[in-house]
């Protein structure tokens, strides 16, 4: 069966790229903008859905009782997608209250209405929001691709360790790790 993919871009939002509050992940995340933009063009040319899902936390979110500092507050500019990505009005911007783009967002229904069978997931961070979205895609009955060159973590080591766990998963071929060129070649 030929797959109908959707591109899910996770947490490429302004608070994580703010030069006045530099984060360790920012330089690595800047490195995935170009391959993400190439995928965006590829998906758009084929009429495949593109979803920008960004953190949209409550000011007093439970997660801020951890070492996480308040950021990406719902309704603020910092919770919006970065402008360096080629977002258009036909793409879905889907604010999310927690890590996964599937958690209380209506994403599953949106994808089903468009006949999507595979979710290609990139963004930040590989080991948190990207990974939970990939796993939730499979739990919701979609095949999933964790995009090697379109995801970043706080360090290259954490990124690679996370990928290595899922390169050998028992969930293959429902869950695969691929780079963007490999995905485009398989979707042409």
Structure description:
With 188 residues, the chain is an alpha/beta fold. It has one domain (5-187): Isochorismatase-like (Rossmann fold). Helix content is 31%, strand content 20%. The protein contains six helices and six strands. Strands 3-2-1-4-5-6 form a six-stranded parallel sheet, with helices on both faces. Helix 4 links the parallel strand 4 (118-124) and strand 5 (143-152). It is globular, with a radius of gyration of 15 Å. The two termini are 14 Å apart.
Q: Would you list the SSEs in sequence order as H and E?
A: EHHEEHEHEHEH
Radius of gyration: 15 Å
Strand content: 15-25%
- Overall outline: globular
The CATH homology group name: Isochorismatase-like
Under CATH, the topology can be stated as: Rossmann fold
Query: How many structurally independent domains?
Result: 1
Main-sheet strand order equals 3-2-1-4-5-6
E-strand count: 6
Total number of helical segments?
6
CATH class: Alpha Beta
Helical content, roughly? 25-40%
Task: State the secondary-structure class.
Answer: alpha/beta
Low-confidence stretches at least 5 residues in length (pLDDT < 50)? none
Distance between the termini: 14 Å
Gross CATH architecture: 3-Layer(aba) Sandwich
- Most strands sheet: 6 strands, parallel
């Amino acid at each position: 069966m030929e797959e109908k993919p959707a591109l899910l871009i996770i947490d490429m939002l302004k608070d994580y790229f703010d030069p006045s509050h530099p984060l360790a992940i920012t330089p690595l995340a800047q490195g995935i903008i170009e391959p993400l933009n190439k995928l965006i063009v590829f998906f758009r040319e084929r009429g495949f859905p593109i979803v920008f899902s960004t953190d949209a936390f409550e000011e007093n979110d439970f997660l801020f009782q951890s070492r996480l500092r308040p950021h990406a507050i719902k309704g603020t500019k910092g919770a919006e997608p970065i402008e360096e990505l080629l977002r258009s009005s036909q793409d879905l911007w889907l604010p999310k209250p927690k890590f996964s783009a599937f958690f209380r967002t209506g994403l599953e229904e949106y994808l089903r209405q468009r006949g999507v069978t595979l979710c290609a997931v990139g963004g930040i961070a590989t080991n948190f929001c990207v990974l939970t979205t990939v796993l939730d895609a499979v739990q919701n009955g979609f095949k999933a691709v964790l995009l090697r060159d379109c995801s970043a973590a706080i360090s290259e080591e954490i990124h690679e360790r996370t990928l290595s766990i899922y390169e050998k998963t028992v969930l293959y071929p429902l869950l695969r790790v691929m780079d963007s060129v490999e995905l485009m070649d398989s979707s042409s």
